[in-house]
Amino acid sequence: MKKILIIEDEQALREEVTVLLNNAGYEAVCIDDFHNVAEQMKRSDPDLILLDINLPEVNGQALLQEFRKASDKPVIMLTSRTSEIDEVLSMSCGADDYVTKPYNPTILLLRISAVLKRSARNSSTNRMYHDAEVSTVKGSLIRSGNEQVLTKNEMIIFQVMLDRMGEIVTRDELMTALWDNDEFVNDNALSVNISRLRGKLSDLGMPDAIETRKKQGYVLK
What we know:
By secondary structure, the protein is α/β, with parallel strands linked by helices. The chain contains eight helices and 14 strands.
């Protein structure tokens, strides 16, 4: 049974999500003490985290950034905000998905299922990209002793392009791989993830690894 950690300060919503997850066959656990939340996240060792952006004493996005330094467990952000910038910032901080409130319970369960499936696919074996080791278990690229940790979404993008190295991969193909369903595509989030991936490849000494083909897509060289 997959364990899902709920970090939500609204008690009614927290209880509602707990019932929804338990009925769907998950083990739902909650945080209701918002002191040292990052440490509680690590100790609970969940398979996935539902993290509200607006929390007492701490911003969810800042909390996610801190958590990402120690863990690559999948995180879905929950928020009542509808600003596109909040979604982009969340993805930049390492979120695997983003759901606005009030949410459709069926859609939330589909998002959770999709993220967990992607996480399972990414935990297989190591591969090589030129002289860099691609560790899907750790979610990182390692070259000459230098390690760059990728978020789940960055690793998905990289793996899709690695599978088709030298070929053009369209933005639509990448977005479909990220969200498993075209209905959940967000173009800005894809751009943010590709930009971050490029930066990490550059830090490994491979600044020109991803080539943009205007109006076509991207090529991993």
